[in-house]
Structures are given as structure tokens and as C-alpha cells.
Amino acid sequence: MTAKDDKNLQQVLKKIAGMPEPARSVMQRMHDLIVAAAPELKPRIWYGMPGYALSASSPVLVFIRNDELITLGISEKAVLEPAGGEDGMLIPAAWYIDGLDDVTEKRLAEIVRAAVG
Predict the structure, then answer these.
(1) CA-to-CA distance for 29 and 56, rounded, in angstroms?
(2) What is the CATH number of the domain that holds 45?
(3) How far is the C-alpha of 77 from the C-alpha of 27, rounded, in Å?
(4) How far is CA 100 from each of CA 14, 37, 49, 106, rounded to the nearest angstrom?
(5) pLDDT tens column, 46-68
(6) Residues contacting 55, CB < 8 A, separation 6+
């Protein structure tokens, strides 16, 4: 990890630590899931919230936000494919979360790995 990567990681962890509960715990768990599912991703602050990219200078692929609900989002720079079936050409790119369980955590990890390609 480069010094810049470490600085960016510390900024992300500080951002998450400053959030009120229960969002703080959910966001920390989502951060942990993202870096475990795609260890090649490097965290950094992106539009004021945690974002994850292949390097400190490459586009963010995955991000998490804490608004009224917590969001896992995939940026337009990620590997995106139309859903197909009844959803036709719609491309899933954001999921709202109000808590985590084993099933949700497994699906989040799959989404992150797919976004990285």
C-alpha cells in the first residue's frame, strides 16, 4: 500500500467513524465487505463519501453513501451489464440498505466483484 493509499484509507475510516449509529456499524461492515470481496480496490473519499477504485488516480467503481438509507452504488466506470429478462436494458446500479444479514452480505460481495470485472 502506498502512502497515498494509506492516507485515503484513513480518511475513509475517519468518515465512517464520524457517522452516528446505527449507520456507522453498517457502513463499517460494508467497507469491510467491499475490501474483502475485491482486495484490489483502494478506498478514498468520493463526493464526501467512501468510494473504491483500482488506484488512487483511477475512477471510482463502487461507492457507499449514508443518506436517509445507506446506498451501495456502482459508478458508470464499473463493469455494467443490462439486467435482461423482464428488466430488459435496465442496468442495476444502486441498492438501498437499512441493515445487513448473511444473505445481503453475500449479495453485496457478488455485486462488488461483478463491478470490478
Answers:
(1) 22
(2) 3.90.1150
(3) 22
(4) 21, 16, 19, 10
(5) 999 999 999 988 999 999 999 88
(6) 42
